[in-house]
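Deviations from the work plan: none for this task. Representative record:
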Amino acid sequence: MQKLPLIAHSALNKTIAWRKGAPVSVEQFLADVAYLTATLPAGKHVLNVCRDRYHFAVGFAAALVSNKVSLLPPTHTPEMVQQLQAFAADVFCLHDNKDCDIALPKLSYPVTPETSAQTQHSHSKDLHSRGLYSKAQLLEILLPEIPQIDAKQLAAIVFTSGSTGTPVPHKKSWGSLVRNVQAQGERLGLETNADYTILGTIPPQHMYGFESSVLLPLQSGNVLSGEQPFYPADIAAALTDITAKRILVSTPLHLRLLLDAEMTLPKLSMVISATAPLSTALAHKVEVSLKAPLIEIYGSTETGQIATRRTTKTEQWQLLPDVRLSARDERFWAEGGHVEIAVPLNDVIEPIDHDHFLLQGRMQDIINIAGKRSSLGNLNHHLNSISGVIDGAFFMPDERSHDHVTRLCACVVAPNLTTAQILAELRTRIDPVFLPRPLLFVESLPRNSTGKLPRNALKKLISQHMRPNEAECNH
Amino acid sequence: MIENNTALQLEISELMVQALNLDVAATDIEPDAQLYGDGLGLDSIDILEVALVVSKQYGLQLKSDNENNHQIFSSLRNLAAYVAAHKTK
């Protein structure tokens, strides 16, 4: 049985996290994990919604060492929470927000005592001062060991929204997660145990945030920033607050806003972007303004991250070592490396050679808004499940630009419902980023004789219903 | 001071409609309607976009550690009041 360590830090006194301008040592982290582990309820499945990235990391680690599975759904709507409970009846919610309204048994992230580590410290200082042991020996004697986890253990189940309203689970073993971020770290040229502090602008519950802002620092022996900055000024403040070397893990949306806000930023060592391809223009602007290399990551919830590119140098994506793409059933599948079971990709791929490819856009049905993914099939299912909706269809307008968020439109046949009623129903079923704007009421949808709704017919219908000054929705 | 913000409310309303390509006229946004969720239906991406145009237009910076953060974006009236109190241009 292969075992892999929870974290890759080389010493217990090293910094593993940076919170509110102060370091958290490996020793404190392990004490926090042990404390939380002791308070976890019996259920085998954890919905970890902690907003503080350090709390999330401790929650994930505590679940892992007690052989529990962390569930990472694409959204936390009431409908999704119900689906999770149907999937795993024993699921409980770990949160750090007093207003948490998730309808599951809840455990509030405990106020962990700092005493355990401090007591050991003063005890060790005492023994040290009496000359009984060297400090290094003491660390070994008195401090907890870094837990070793079976590589085959099921660490997380990440869900995609699926096409029929039921979320689709994707199992992630501990070994697969570790191999993935180790390959990522090597590709990025990220030195291990080198005191890089990694700050993410994406939530740790998102697959990209989970990998790049939580697992990457833990598995490269570097430092995780606990912050979850929102506004550009928050990102700037969180970066300034870090005194070590800084890596920013972000998205095209946040990077564009950060540059547009013209914030004064401290020196960065690297910028990482994912969730949607960056335009080459924005990539150049990022590198010039932030004076750091920008590496884009390509991946998905199903595959984890599988390729990278330095966007200012090339449009081509380079696969991570051992990951391969193969064409089957008119689409491409990823396998090898950390991808334990071959997975079909949702993007149109143009292969260049055995480890390089170009991305040519998404498959028609797939929707990705600011890193949240769904499919038209799934959204249409939810729209048509509303009582009083006779027929309805979502429509994704053509993208204005890579770096801007394009929103969905929808047409609905529902003579007895109002916009507000439909939106309120949708809000309980789908993530708010997918709510249609606008929602158009029509007499019927232009379905063909087989009941299919051609995209062009829907596009034409929508353009007829839009006011002239809103024609951008269609272009 | 809040009473004198009608013009500013309309100005910000216009900025929002333009920045977010909203399906309503600027004059139709009720000063006290919720911007988030059930009212106008804005989400966090919209709030980021609005924060950017507002900060550029009025020379102020929005930060999350502001205790009133949620209140600022709760309605057009509150956003306008915050801008009026903090604008530098």
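The interface with chain A takes residues 21-23, 37-38, 41, 43-45, 48-49, 51-52, 55-56, 61-65 of chain B (CB under 8 Å).
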